[in-house]
Amino acid sequence: MKFTKNLKLSVAIAIAVLLIFLVAFCDGLPYPSFFWVFAFALPIIASIFYAIITKKILNGCLIFFSWFILLAAGLEDLFFYIIYGPIPKSMFHLYDEPWMSWVARTLGLETVTPFSLIVSVILGAIVIAVLVISFRFLRNKKWWPKWL
Questions:
Q1: Backbone CA torsion sign across 116, 127, 16, 100
Q2: pLDDT over 60 (residue 3)
Q3: d(CA 53, CA 88)
Q4: Residue 12 neighbours by CB under 8 Å, 6+ apart
Q5: Closest listed residue to residue 63, CA positions, set 18, 126, 99, 98
Q6: Separation between Cα atoms, residue 106 and residue 103, nearest integer Å
Q7: How many whole angstroms from its chain centre is CA 115?
Q8: How far is CA 26 from CA 5, 64, 73, 131, in A?
Q9: Could you tell me if residue 147 is inside a domain?
Q10: Exposed end of the chain (fewer CB within 10 Å): N or C?
Q11: Is 61 exposed, middle or buried (0-12, 13-18, 19+ CB in 10 A)?
């Protein structure tokens, strides 16, 4: 099976989502103090390997950027609650997170709620869609380096 440009970008985003799912799963287990170092190392390592495999640096960068955006948007927290139990009606501990608290405040809420968490994740997906469209647009330019 030949990897097309669009398939490479789709695989990169799928890898980022799977890594977030893995972090959410591990977040429910007893873990050592270096857990978040491990959690941030996963997408960095995956990005490097994917960039080497696809021979395009931006494909690898897309994994990390997508992972980071979706993590900030709350996808890891949403996966955590889907795996380990019901989503609480109020999530005060997530109100300290800049992206999620901004969405909650914009919606006129005093804390992160299930609705604001889902809206936050959807906004993260929209940001990634814009990022992918930008990558596709830039790659079609003649002046764009082939190795990127």
A1: negative
A2: no
A3: 41
A4: 50, 59, 60, 62, 63, 66
A5: 18
A6: 5
A7: 19
A8: 32, 19, 18, 28
A9: no
A10: N
A11: middle
Judge residue 87's burial from the number of C-beta atoms within 10 Å of its C-beta, 0-12 exposed, 13-18 middle, 19 or more buried: middle
Domain interval for residue 104: 5-139
Residue 89 maps to a domain: yes
In a domain, residue 42? The reply is yes
Q: Is there a contact between 69 and 17 (Cβ–Cβ < 8 Å)?
A: no
pLDDT in tens, 91-129: 988 988 999 999 999 999 999 999 999 999 999 999 999
Q: List the structure tokens of 54.
A: 């696809």
Q: At what angle do helices 114-139 and 98-106 cross, to 10 degrees?
A: 110
The two tokens of residue 101 are 């608290």
**pLDDT digit string, tens, across residues 28-40:** 888 777 888 888 9
How many structural domains are present in the chain? 1
| pLDDT per position as a tens digit, 25-70 | 988 888 777 888 888 999 999 999 998 988 888 888 899 999 999 9
Residue 30 carries which DSSP code?
Answer: -
Structural domain contains residue 148:
no
